[in-house]
Amino acid sequence: MENGSGASVGKPKEEPVVTYRRTIGLFRIVVCVLAVLVVALSIAFAVVVTQLKAEISALPGDCPDTANIDLNPPKVLPPFHDLTQEEISQVKEYLYDQTDLGLVRPKNISTSLSYIFLIDLHVPNKDQVIGYLDHGQAQPVREARVTLFMGDRPEPFIQEYTVGPLPNPYYKKDQTTFPFRNRPTTAPELKAAEEMITAHVNNLVPHILEESYDGKLGDCGKKCLAFKMISTLSTATSSDPRTRKLWFGLNPVIEFESLHSLDFAVLIDVTSSNIEDYKIDKIYYAGDKFNSLEDLKNSYEYGSVLKTRIPYPEDSRVLYSTAHRRGPRFPEQPQLPPRAYEPDGKRYSIQGRHLGYMGWQFDLRMSSAFGPQLFDIRYQGDRIVYELSLQDIAVFYSANNPTIRFADYVDSVSMIGSSVRPLIADTDCPIHSTFIGMDYFSESTDDPVHVDRAFCVFEHNTGMPLRRHLTSSGKNKFYEGMMDIVLTVRTITTITNYDYIFDFIFHQNGALEVKAVSTGYILTSFRFPMEDEYGFRLKNHLTGNIHHHMFHYKVDMDINGRENRFETIEIVPREVDNSQWSTKPDARYAQTRMMRRQRKTEVEATVDYDFSAPKYLTFYNDKHKTETGLPRAYRILVDGMSKQMLTVGRGQEASIPWARHQLAVTKYHETERRSSSIFANFDGENPTVNFQAYIDNDEVLTDQDQVAWVTMGVHHIPHTEDLPVTSTVGLDLRFLLLPNNYFQEDPAMGSGDAVRIEPNNQNHVSQGLHIQTYGKSENSRCFPRKSNFYSIIQERPGSVFTRT
């Protein structure tokens, strides 16, 4: 009988003993199995951990800082080292102590007082330097060259001295005097002129500005206008060579104002050292000339002048003159671009301002006035170049309106070196660069000015093979090749609207490349129909004016010593008798031959490039030849030639006679150190440095210490793609110093950057390859360093936008 639960009635209830024991047994089995698994996993984990530790220990770490980079000045400063902050300060104090000079300090400077304008290193005499470097003679005394504006004299003038010895000067010597009207434009002068123009315009014709351009001077709210100096009317372009005049153009205060040119400009006479004597000379408005603001006001109010009516530009991120990102976006997702790094650390050395790389050695400095300079450039211990330096930049514009017509700039007037601003990592230079600062004197500050990142130095894989060859058939199958990996030294100077990038590139085969590249904002004119022959109409009221960029370099080559020859190897056509190889009677065959021609005098040594007469330009010492009797030479290859189209001696052209020739070679003289001067923008009538005279005296060059002067240039007709900022593509100019029978073979054959591959068995390629990497590993020894550059400049904004 069962109850509802299914249990038997009257029978004892069974205990589930057997069932219980089975459960315990299964549990023990599971526990044992799990225990075994845990032990096995522990052993496996320990093995894996051990392997991971081994692998992790074998992985590269962060690239180490290298001990071969020391940017601090050495205890004994070499002849080419820039002035230190201490030396600049000592020179200043010495000059202030000279009661006969009567100099005021920076906070008090004005054009009507005497003050220090420039302090720079005075590079010693070449004979003395060579004696010190090569012959163990005494080190030349360190000296500074100073430029003083003596504006408080009865007849103001500019005065230059050599001051020394440094760091504790006690003498000034070698006095030279220049006309005061030829001085570079300075902050006190420009500030006073702008204030005077603003006051006069606001007093007489503020309504013309409001009605014509929808803006104001001074108390202007969000529609501000301002005058800025655009161009000069120098002694070469003025009817009175004793005057000094400046054109000031009106622009809206907006990013970037040169792309919003207006048709209002003022010519002001600033000849006097006294700002109270400044006066308005001419007015330009709406294509017409007026002798005074009163004349303009009367003509405007009587309706006898064409009136301009344009709205003030709307300040927005999509305005064409701004450099904000806009347009179709790419890439689709934010991704970092490719970056280079140094997998085994830096392979170059820097000690102060002395650099070494793959057989190259040289010294680097920055001239405050003229820009970058390299000295004592050697390869494999032999001096190739004593001095390689930028001499000047010129930009000559053309236009119908007067402000751009006379915009003929010789940029040393703006102090090329002092216009260098801090470089930005990952855009101006690769992020793995070494940055070198500079110190210089400024007329407007008590302390020397420091620029954190004036130069960058970086090794770079150009992505182009330096050499390569593959033989895939026969019994000598092999591949050998090497990337062109170079060291680049770069600086960038910003002169008003244009930025100029200067590179010095050292190749491993003994070649040295020099580049100049333009970028920045173009200078424009307010568009009238007469401007159309001077440039394209880029916007409704905007013409991009044609202009010519020109760069001049000094190349003092000392090939196997100072006694050099300059020889051109002419490539000339020739027809030869071909009857031996032809069935035609009197058969001729056209080809070319080379004809060596030594250029024995300076006039004979000028080169105006002619595509119908190509030539090699070579320099050598006749006492040093190869095993086969060839001169061990270097050649200059200019890959940036352009012709100066202006009439010789007309207008401002006389300020840049160096631009008449693509190459000139002159005998070395200490008195011919430079091809230009800081006064060149104003001295066209009577140039301070008459470079043409270096050539015209026609000295003998044979077996003399020679200097090559190289001119590069490009004519730029702005186009719409130059808005907002001109890209560098197509505007890079370069010249190269190339070995030409100088070495017995390519010296880069000694480089470990090469790779050679050949079969283990020439008859059976399938038996594998022998790959020779000369000790290099396929794997990096270190990771790229993490960059915190943006964090650094965020904490120190002055390292980008101000000088310290």
Strand and helix layout:
Blueprint: H1 17-58, E1 61-62, E2 69-70, H2 85-96, E3 114-122, H3 126-135, E4 143-150, E5 157-164, E6 171-179, H4 187-204, H5 206-213, E7 225-233, E8 245-252, E9 264-269, E10 279-285, E11 288-290, H6 293-301, E12 349-351, E13 354-357, E14 360-367, E15 371-379, E16 382-397, H7 402-405, E17 408-410, E18 434-440, E19 449-471, E20 478-495, E21 498-506, E22 512-520, E23 524-526, E24 535-539, E25 542-545, E26 547-557, E27 565-577, E28 588-598, E29 615-625, E30 631-639, E31 663-667, H8 691-696, E32 706-716, E33 732-740, E34 755-759, E35 769-772, E36 782-783, H9 789-795, H10 798-801
Parallel strand pairs: 1-36, 2-12
Antiparallel strand pairs: 3-4, 4-5, 5-6, 7-8, 8-9, 9-10, 10-11, 12-13, 13-14, 14-15, 15-16, 16-17, 16-26, 18-19, 19-20, 20-21, 20-34, 21-22, 22-33, 23-25, 24-25, 26-32, 27-28, 27-29, 29-30, 30-33, 31-32, 34-35
